[in-house]
């Protein structure tokens, strides 16, 4: 508010100098206070109401795919760094993003572990994880893939197979289930056990060995890196 003299001030609307007692303060949606004369006050209040009603932008929850006000959506960071927007309900049901508690099982286990296209047992988590493609919460270990446009996605086995068929996947990171099979270790193996297993397997897989090859050598390295990246 521009002060003209001790008893007058400028209206923030029209700029006229009017007596102080004729000015009314109107609070705008962004918290700004404007001083208006009697002629500008209705316009200021109408503008404030209009801007408030316009601030109703909506977005989609990545969990349930419902539509909510953007102010109601909250960003959730998954274990691999993927950020998803969730409504309050999905935030409350979101999996633990700080740790990855896992158990293993066979196709006949009652915990419902699924089997991927390679026939290996999937790793199930204590809490379900969200497929970033179909937006379904699944218990199977997700595939971390890089698409041809360099996006990182976490896909369930079904969506991974579909994406491969569509030719949009550039790279698929080895899953922990498969990585443990390559190194021959159990879930919860210590750092020392992982290092020992790695040294044993990498010697067998080295291209200089009769039993080794470049692809086998790289597979062992990828498996070790996958299991130690979070430690």
UniProtKB/TrEMBL annotation:
Residues 178-231 form the J domain. Residues 117-126 have a biased composition (Acidic residues). Transmembrane segments: none annotated. InterPro entries: DnaJ_domain (IPR001623), J_dom_sf (IPR036869). Residues 96-126 are annotated as: Disordered. It holds the Pfam family DnaJ. Residues 100-116 have a biased composition (Low complexity). This is DnaJ domain-containing protein. It comes from Natronorubrum thiooxidans.
């Amino acid at each position: 508010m521009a002060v003209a003299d001790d008893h007058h001030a400028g209206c923030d609307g029209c700029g006229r100098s009017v007596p102080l007692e004729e000015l009314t303060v109107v609070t705008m949606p962004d918290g700004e206070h404007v001083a208006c004369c009697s002629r500008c006050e209705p316009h200021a209040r109408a503008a404030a109401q209009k801007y408030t009603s316009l601030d109703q932008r909506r977005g989609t929850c990545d969990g349930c795919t419902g539509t909510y006000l953007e102010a109601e959506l909250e960003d959730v960071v998954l274990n691999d760094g993927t950020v998803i927007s969730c409504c309050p309900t999905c935030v409350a049901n979101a999996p633990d993003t700080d740790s990855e508690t896992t158990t293993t099982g066979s196709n006949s286990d009652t915990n419902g572990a699924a089997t991927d296209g390679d026939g290996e047992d999937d790793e199930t988590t204590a809490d379900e994880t969200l497929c970033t493609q179909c937006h379904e919460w699944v218990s199977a270990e997700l595939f971390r893939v890089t698409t041809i446009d360099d996006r990182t996605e976490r896909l369930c086995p079904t969506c991974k197979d579909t994406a491969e068929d569509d030719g949009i996947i550039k790279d698929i990171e080895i899953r922990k289930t498969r990585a443990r099979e390559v190194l021959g270790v159990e879930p919860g193996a210590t750092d020392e056990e992982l290092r020992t297993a790695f040294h044993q397997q990498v010697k067998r897989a080295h291209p200089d060995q009769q039993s080794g090859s470049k692809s086998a050598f790289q597979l062992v390295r990828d498996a070790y890196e996958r299991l130690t990246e979070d430690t």
